[in-house]
Specification:
The protein is of the alpha+beta class. Helices cover 23% and strands 25% of the residues. The chain has helices at residues 90-100, 117-121, 193-201, 209-223, 244-253, 271-277, 306-324; strands spanning 22-28, 44-46, 52-53, 58-65, 70-75, 79-85, 124-125, 128-129, 134-141, 147-151, 172-182, 231-235, 241-243, 260-261, 266-268, 284-285, 288-290, 297-300, 333-334. Strands 5-6-11-9-10 form a 5-stranded antiparallel sheet, with no helix packed on it. A 4-stranded antiparallel sheet has the order 12-18-17-16, covered by helices on one side. A 3-stranded parallel sheet has the order 1-4-2, with no helix packed on it. A hairpin with a 6-residue loop joins strand 17 and strand 18. The protein is globular and about 60 Å long.
């Protein structure tokens, strides 16, 4: 029986806590290091490891992004533009901005992962997405090691989607992200029921960005498992968007099905509702399962293999398709 070389284990570098091996591990502290890495085109980059499902050992060098730095590019009385190194922790950035009085990302508190993964996924929560505040992404072309600047429009943002998940996938290393945030006259978004209820309970009639952040943190902690306690990647599936006629047909058959309007022809159906309605919520299968408080979150109860989690995800997809004829797309990148 072969012994695992723990120094090459990626267990501490993915939030699922999956114990897979890398051929070699490099910790990236600054961009100059990229020029010294042999055969960089064959390397695999990890940021916060919060949006990947590792199903096997990686026969390649893994580069763990640990770059850091938050710099003010420009500011006036109303706005500040920041340049943030992609290796920074996203939630720490949110807390830093609140401390400084910068508004615009407070609804995205406690989203796990690194700043570099944020534009890749177009992360969002409670009515806000990173595309609302992002000014640019600086990305290093893996072939040439030249840095290319993508404007907000060039990032082709969609729902949990960007150019970095489509035609630019695997071609770039996201090095830096620019954000434009408010310094005063903050436009807080408290329209989501959970946030509204939390603020009302505490009699916040004019909530600050810190109040909104505290509400989001409390709500997320009440619903989502902390990856350091229970391995997970947050929401595993995207909320599917289906045609209105399809939804009406389902509504006749399943009167309690939920939806949110998208446009005149389409609605979004909560994936969590679909999964829960089929009995998956809280169900354990071997070392994995759907979380007891949030069906969308698949978890590692300890010693799970990535392939086990992937099989569970496929079984859930099939179950949803068989009953509702809705395709559930995985939000997590399966490697």
């Amino acid at each position: 029986m072969s012994h695992k070389n723990t120094t090459l284990s990626l267990k501490d570098y993915n939030t699922f806590g999956l114990d897979v091996l890398a051929k070699n591990l490099i910790f990236l502290k600054d961009l100059e290091q990229l020029k010294e890495i042999e055969d960089i085109k064959e390397c695999f980059f990890i940021g916060g490891g919060s949006n990947i499902l590792l199903t096997k050992d990686l026969d390649k060098t893994v580069i763990v992004n640990q770059t850091s730095g938050i710099t003010i590019i420009s500011e006036d009385d109303d706005y500040v533009e920041l340049a943030i190194a992609s290796g920074e922790n996203w939630h720490n950035l949110v807390l830093h901005c609140i401390e400084m009085g910068y508004g615009g990302i407070e609804n995205m508190s406690l989203i796990p992962g690194s700043v570099g993964a944020a534009p890749m996924q177009n992360i969002g929560a409670y009515g806000k997405e990173i595309k609302d505040v992002l000014t640019y992404v600086d990305a290093v072309d893996i072939q040439t090691l030249k840095t290319i600047r993508f404007t907000n429009a060039e990032c082709q943002f969609g729902y949990r989607e960007s150019i970095f998940k489509k035609e630019a996938k695997g071609k770039y290393f996201i090095a830096e992200v620019g954000l434009k945030l408010t310094k005063r006259y903050h436009k807080t978004n408290t329209s989501y029921g959970d946030i509204e209820a939390w603020l009302q309970e505490r009699c916040f009639t004019e909530p600050t960005i810190r109040d909104v952040s505290n509400a989001v943190i409390a709500i997320r902690k009440s619903k989502l498992p902390d990856p350091s306690d229970l391995g997970n990647s947050g929401s595993f599936f995207k909320n599917p968007i289906i045609g209105k006629s399809h939804f009406e047909t389902l509504k006749d058959k399943f009167p309690t099905i939920k939806s949110y309007p998208i446009d005149e022809n389409n609605v979004k159906v909560p994936a969590g509702w679909l999964i829960e309605s089929l009995g998956w919520k809280g169900k354990r299968v071997g070392n994995t399962g759907s979380h007891a408080k949030q069906a969308l979150v698949l978890v590692n109860y300890g010693n799970a293999q990535g392939s086990e989690v992937y099989q569970l995800a496929k079984d859930i997809q099939q179950s949803v398709w068989d009953t509702y004829q809705i395709s559930l797309d995985m939000e997590v990148n399966v490697i």
